[in-house]
User: Fold this.
Amino acid sequence: MTKHKRGHSRIISNILSFTMNGSLKTELMRKANLSYAQLKSYIPMLIRLKLLAASKSEKTTVYETTEKGMNFLRRFRELDKLLKSSPKEHVKKTDNLPKTSCFGK
Assistant:
């Protein structure tokens, strides 16, 4: 089985999924299969975009998906489901197209 790299949208979706009920950094890294460097780049961006919120207590920071983040997640899942549906339903077969020539015959 070939491993595929996850795109940015998929990584964002994973982060938002695993922070729905609140998550610490180490827990999030493990669940979303992220490196510390990836986490350091995604968390500030998601907070800036208001998709993720950070709640600080004495020694820890808990990250939680915002309502805007939940909306992103719903839309991402809808799009993902649509794109994973059978390609035969959405793409015309090129086998049935008439054969044409640049010479008109």
